[in-house]
Amino acid sequence: MNARNAHLTPRQARALAGLVQHRAMPVDVLADFLGCGLSHAYETAAALRGHGLARELTALGSGPKWVIPTRQAVTRYFGRSLPEWTPSPLWSVRGRASAQARVILGATGFDDWTSERELSLERTERSAYPYDGLMARTSNPFALRTARGVASPVWAVRTDVARTSNPRQLVASLHTAVAQAENDGCTVVLWVCTGAHRPETVYAAARTIHSDLALTAATPDEITGRYKRIRAVQSLPKGA
Fold first, then answer.
1. Which candidate, 11, 32, 149, 216, has a CA 20 to 30 Å from the CA of 204?
2. Which residue in 176, 184, 175 sits closest to 209, CA to CA?
3. In which element (H, E) is residue 135 found?
4. What angle separates helix 10-22 from helix 38-50, to the nearest 10 degrees?
């Protein structure tokens, strides 16, 4: 166990990593992330508070309260001081969706996922990172099946939580995410449709994006196998 996880149990260390990577998690998603019951997730959050690594549970709108790491926890994880950060109710929609996407993809190991927060630290631009995480490994059958034709797939995962359909904004978001994914060495863009945009809409918008990457779009139900329609990865039009 390295220094940043000293004096923590394995479960507490995993919780700390996930919380810092995702900036915060509602306690029910934290339980899913850890693969434990809700009571154990509450106990883990309490233990982290005892170490000074988590704040008091925080309400963000309706639903379960959130576990938010302290600045001390962020400094301990990254080895550098970062500004104090507090989630807003508006951010919480995307924050929950992106953490849930990681969980259903089975990429909950330390080295399975590089979060947008980690990726942003290496980026000079101040704008929000255009996708939620870089996934290096997954046990999810949907992802493995759809990327079967891609050698050593590395996924750029974006959760789309748009409340209303906006084709022009979707094209812009796709373009920005694909360009960043290319720069990050990804081979597949996985667009998780949790809002108004459906997979068919994403595929239609992607026809305007020229790239050597592949793209797949899916709902959470498709990724978890609760909906059986499987659409293979669609190659984007080749870049110039």
1. 149
2. 175
3. strand 133-135
4. 80
Mean pLDDT of 42-71: 96
Band of the pLDDT at 239, cuts 50, 70, 90?
A: low
Which residue in this structure is represented by tokens 């500004």?
83
Residue 3 pLDDT greater than 50, yes or no: no
Residue where the block lists tokens 């992607």: 206
Pairing of strands 214-218, 188-193: parallel
CB 179 within 8 A of CB 209: no
Place of tokens 């720069």: 183
Average pLDDT over residues 49-78: 95
Alpha-carbon span 173 to 169, nearest angstrom: 6
Q: What mean pLDDT do residues 114-122 have? A: 93
In our burial notation (b when 16+ CB lie closer than 10 A, e otherwise), range 69-82 reads: bbeebbebbeeeee
* Helix residue spans in the chain (DSSP H): 10-22, 27-34, 38-50, 71-78, 89-104, 116-121, 141-146, 167-183, 199-206, 220-224
Query: Reduced to 3 states, what is the DSSP secondary structure of residue 25?
Result: strand
**Cβ-contact 38, 50 below 8 angstroms:** no
H/E element, 190: strand 188-193
Joined together, the tokens standing for residue 139 give 């046990």
Residue 69's nearest CA partner among 109, 101, 37, 115 is: 115
Give the integer Cα–Cα distance in Å for 144 and 138: 8
Q: What gap in Å lies between CA 188 and CA 178, rounded to an integer?
A: 9
For 110, residues 6+ apart whose C-beta sits below 8 A from its C-beta are: 14, 17
